[in-house]
Task: structure prediction
Amino acid sequence: MNLVRRDLKNLAAYIAGKPIPETQRELGLEKVYKLASNENPLGVSPKAIKAIQKALREINRYPDSQSFYLKRRLAQEFKLSPNNFVLGNGSDELIDVIIKTFVENNETILTANTTFLEYRIISKVNGRRIHEVPLKDFTYDLEKIRKRVNNKTKLIFIANPNNPTGTYVNKKELINFIKSLPAHTITVLDEAYDTFIDVNDFPKSVEWIRNKNIIVLKTFSKAFGLAGLRIGFAVAKPELTQYMEKVRQPFNLNSLAQAASVSALDDRIFLSKTKKNNLTGKKYLYRELAKIPVTYIPSVANFILVDTRLDCFLVFKQLLKKGIIVRDMKQYGLDTFIRVTIGTGEENKSFISALKEVIMNQKRIN
Ligand SMILES: Cc1ncc(COP(=O)(O)O)c(C=O)c1O
Result:
């Protein structure tokens, strides 16, 4: 008997970065570095830890379903109103909420073909059609995407910076694109990595939410170091957020997450250390990668896409044996690429030394 929806039978599930304990268990390794999920290598903000410890005493209660204090703090941070925000169990959940809220059965979704895989997976799980447009020079090709927009296009997902390439679309390109869209289309600007930006022409897209059909997504999982607690937020005009509020689960943001994120926003020292570590690490990795027979795509985020010119799964496996977890890019169709998160100084050094060995060994074999 066919119990499962037919359109889900061949769905390729999301493959997450391999966890450290799993790698230790499987390979009998003690020291393992994870550079696979673009998490914060400096750990957790001390202020957030204090807030979690305090909030622990009240986890017998349901969380505040309105996340009053976090919305108030975000409103203050962005000079907006609390009703401009919708909170999610990670921005992953908000992608789902957005599709459920806005896309009718016969409407379609547009994005790039090498981008965050959840746009594809969540669209399909919701029974919605998604069209994927090839990148140009590893960057979103807004011109081509614009040409694919028609009267059925409801949503456009743009990861800016893009994952896994680390590239970005600049302010001018993006605003011209958004201005050119028909009134029935909503653009989702997924800015999970915006905190790491080190260029001047990156868009301040939150300033556009009043007058445009856009939803800006941000997360506490990356620079704010709270990936394990699952906190993301959407910023948009109330005409959009009020309906997303009806679709999200009432207690989607747990009380520890609410407490931690307010304090993480206040911890400017931790954030500034995080940014500094990323810039220093990026410079080091660029310098060292240039000495190995590989190429890389310059990144404005906290990860780098590296073309090893070898089978990426083989490189991934060999690095794993040396206690370094990276992400092989097979599921993105980039068969010779790995994506590495910029880590601490020690992690970056260990990665480079392991990669050198793997590449040299393979060259000898070949
Ligand atoms: C572009 C992009 N958007 C969203 C997410 C999901 O983040 P969250 O942890 O908030 O669900 C990620 C995580 O890797 C990402 O790369």
Observations:
- The two ends are 49 Å apart (CA to CA).
- Residues 268-289 form the longest helix (22 residues).
